[in-house]
TrEMBL record:
Entry GO MF terms: N-acetylmuramoyl-L-alanine amidase activity
Catalysed transformations (reactions): Hydrolyzes the link between N-acetylmuramoyl residues and L-amino acid residues in certain cell-wall glycopeptides
Pfam family of the protein (one): Amidase_2
Protein's name according to its UniProt entry: N-acetylmuramoyl-L-alanine amidase
Amino acid sequence: MKAEATEVLPRQGVRAPGFDRSPQWRDYFSSIEGRETSRNANRRCPMPYLTQLADVARRTGHPVTESAGWKTRGHGPQPEVQGIVCHHTAGPPGGGDYPSLAVVRDGRPGLDGPLSHFGLGRSGRIHVIAAGRCWHNAPSTSPLHDNSSSIGIEAENSGSQPWPEVQLDAYRSLCAELCVEFGLPASRVKAHREVNTAKPDPHSIDMNDFRAAVAVLITGGAGPSWTEEIVKDLPLIRLGDDSYDVKTVRGCLFARGHVPPTAYAGTTAGLEEWLKSTSCDSGLVELVRGFQRAEGIDDDGIVGPGTWPSLLRV
Ligand SMILES: [Zn+2]
């Protein structure tokens, strides 16, 4: 393709050498991020360019291609990794393993590349494209999945064609290895459509199934953990429900530090009474929403397959 010839041209942006968490870099983040820097001030721990990404990709066992110059490619360094966002390229429907490489690497009119850290070919080949920050999700509805806080994977797909199983296998494996590398639970793996209301991608992948498979890979493929086994039998808990399982939700929220004293201030017997209640009232739903936001889960206030694993995690 035409753009292949420009493969080795240096990309615009800040170079990795010299990145050392110095005041100079803090000023850099402040100047480019403004509001976001202040919002994330308490958890921000600046990272250098993520030059380990090719090694992480190789752990999947799938073939890896390092795009020339990837270690210094990015819109500045990657400030942090709190989440992973899965995309499809919406590229041409036919021909080639990863025809979208040039676009993902170099950008398109109106949006400079790199657009994501990884590309994923139809054969399961993983292209490592950038080690710095990429423009893959803005505006994000999740602070854990915006451009400054997450890694993007652009998988080749027209947006409607079936996914080859080998590509899906590589997709799940890459997400699992990234979770292991950055210490993230599978719940931090999101579809673009889950963290950006204007996006449809990646099409037709059930993300609950996808995350469940990633969780199994994270634990070493030893089969579902005890939490995953019991989660299958747990019901949805939503506003207005009255059941014993509501008490489980209350107990888990309390154990996770998500029940402030104000939550039970209005009860006669205080916390004990609050914990025994089998009623899913609006106060409980609000606490569930807070927990979901803290975990990077959609904050719908409903405890279901996406929330139970995080609540029960030991
Ligand atoms: Zn996308």
